[in-house]
Sequence to fold (202 residues):
Amino acid sequence: MNVKGGTDSEWAFALFLDCLDKAGHNPNSDPGKGGFGHSVLRKMMLLTIEKINAFIKEIPNEENHGAGGLETRSLLNFAVTDGHSVVCTRYVSSTTDEAASLYFSSGTSWKQEGPTGNYKMERRDKGADIVLVASEPLTFERVPTNSTLTIHKQTVMIHPIIDEFQQPSPSYERSSKFAVSKGLEANAPGINKLNSAIEAIV
Fold:
């Protein structure tokens, strides 16, 4: 894998491609009519997160502690696609912290209401002709912390990421301080202007 940049996103994506390749799915080839498949994308994304967590565990303990210690919690919101399916993650390597915000909305049309620039998702049937994924709430549903959001054809699926950072109690309230300190938590619900927060339109 020839990574030319130095950002964490580039290295994480290279790791994802490496996982895909080692599982027998050449990322440089045409995956065919149906793509790699949403199950393959989701499994490789989960493996990528697992490997990142394993790398962090290899950091010697003396480097993790103290006032100048390394921050070992990771905020891992990713989105990958093969052109047919999309898999997004909302994840933090912590049992007590909230992940960076992630929302989605699905329906049959996304329409502007009046001259104010406000938009609304409309649903005429059970299909999801349009799926928007964003870091800001707009009119969206929140993706639970440590979950994957999978979009395949007209279906949206949410699966929990089951690992050591999963909280078994659905009523447990995580702290948003860590994500807020990184500028990665939505300011407040109810924002309904279409802006650069929209990161994926399917």
Summary: Helices lie at 8-22, 38-57, 61-64, 177-181.
